[in-house]
Amino acid sequence: LFLSFTDSDGHTRIVSYDMAGTIDDPIVDSESETLRFSVEQPYPNHNGGMIGFGPDNMLWLGLGDGGAADDPGNRAQDPSTPLGKMVRLDVLGEAGEVEPEIMVSGVRDPWRWWFDTDESLWIADVGQNKIEEINRLDKQDIKGANLGWGGYDGSEPYLEGDGRRPTDAIAPIFEYTHEEGGCSLTGGPVYRGGVIPSLEGAFIFADYCAGEVRAIRVGEDGQFANEYDLRIEIDNPISFGVDASGEVYVLSQGGKILLLVNDQ
Questions:
Q1: Do residues 57 and 94 touch, judged by C-beta distance below 8 A?
Q2: At 174, phi and psi to the nearest 5?
């Protein structure tokens, strides 16, 4: 069992616990806690980190840029820190704390990310105060990709100087502005369930302020093709989940969990 959390000092920690029992009756060995990864956080925001195993059997972690506004330490472009990056950890091949391998740079607050069945990586990156962006990277383009923060906010040039604006920045496949409604992007999964056939292959997302669940689909070229309003409203959506059948749940900060169903 792997857990990601911020400790009482606000710093990021990933720990593991040994498991016993069966799938139907799992038992967590609470005495076996082992620190697997840690990084100090300079500010109290952008400190959440989604973890999940990728198709490479590595534990992937999305880390914000450390917080404050405008990434004052330019951490998203600094290769010496995992902050502002997507990293992976070889927790199955190593014991104890492991070194992170940087896979994607130039993210601000990747809330959240998802691997699709073709091993492409979707990243929903929360913007500064104007643009929210969704990124998609094909399998072969993931390692070494740079999404451009803080030289770019979405597809628009933003900060300059201090090595902030990479020449190889990858633009998002979809973005929306705060003027259109919303304030903070919450990314979800690519739908691969069976209950809503019309959503097959679509990336589902929501906005913390707007509270509307939406989806986008890409064309054969891997670029944005269509956007859909799913006509689902939920107050302050902060995360998504997927069950063993691939069906999608939406989590509200208010405590509600909604299951997406087909109303046709």
A1: no
A2: -155, 145
Contacts of 246 (CB under 8 A, 6+ apart): 191, 192, 193, 194
Alpha-carbon Rg for the chain, nearest whole angstrom, is 18
CB-side exposure of 21: number of CA atoms within 13 Å? Answer: 10
pTM above the 0.70 mark? Answer: yes
Buried b (16+ CB within 10 A) or exposed e, 7-37: eeeeebbbbbeeeeeeeeeeeeeeeeeeebb
At 209, which helix (H) or strand (E)? none
Angle at 178 between CA 113 and CA 138, to 5 degrees: 30
Instruction: Give residue 237's Cα distance to chain centre.
Output: 14
3-state secondary structure of 134: strand
Query: Using CA atoms, how far apart are residues 165 and 59, in angstroms rounded to an integer?
Result: 29
The share of the chain scoring above pLDDT 90, in percent, equals: 94
Is the CB of residue 64 less than 8 Å from the CB of residue 46? yes
CA distance 206 to 250: 9
Burial of 179 (0-12, 13-18, 19+ CB in 10 A): exposed
> How far apart (Å, rounded) are the C-alpha atoms in residues 147 and 197?
31
Q: Exposed e or buried b for every residue in 80-113, given b needs 16+ CB within 10 A?
A: ebbbbbbbbbebeeeeeebebebbbbbbbbbbbb
DSSP 8-state symbol, 211? -
On whether the CB atoms of residues 61 and 98 are closer than 8 A, the answer is no
Count other Cβ atoms within 10 Å, centred on residue 41.
20
227: CB partners within 8 A, 6+ apart: 174, 214, 215, 216
pLDDT tens-digit map of 92-126: 987 899 999 999 999 999 999 999 999 999 999 99
